[in-house]
Amino acid sequence: MKAIIVAAGPGSRLMPITSEKPKCLLELGSQTILERALSTLRESGIEKIAVVRGYHSNLINYSNITYYQNPDFMNTNILRSLFYAEDEMNDDFIFSYSDILYSKEIVEELVHSKADIALIVDVGWTKHYEGRNQHPITEAELVKVENGRVV
User: What is the pTM of this model?
Assistant: First the structure.
């Protein structure tokens, strides 16, 4: 099992905070968001990690990571960024955004899944949108789940 993390976007809704660095390099306590993800993945036994960079790519530089570059990150979306790491998709992998916080238990649930394709969804996501004005629900990436299946 390996992981592919997309960290190419500029985090434009957080400007000017992200004017000098990508959103994944914002610090939460003593670590950046990306450092937390890398640590959680490694704690779960995932050592082979690829990161797709774009915006301020020179600042994302951790050891023991395979890097890919999306040179057109300002004009493409997350899916296009993911496919810059297509060489990593020849075996089981976990795909993650670079600005998502998750626990070791979440990663292990994915690692131990017997499904061909598994998706972790926060079914209580709407409460995280309360009070937002720069990223309204209408712009959320929505997943509809019925009877435990994505429809």
Answer: 0.87
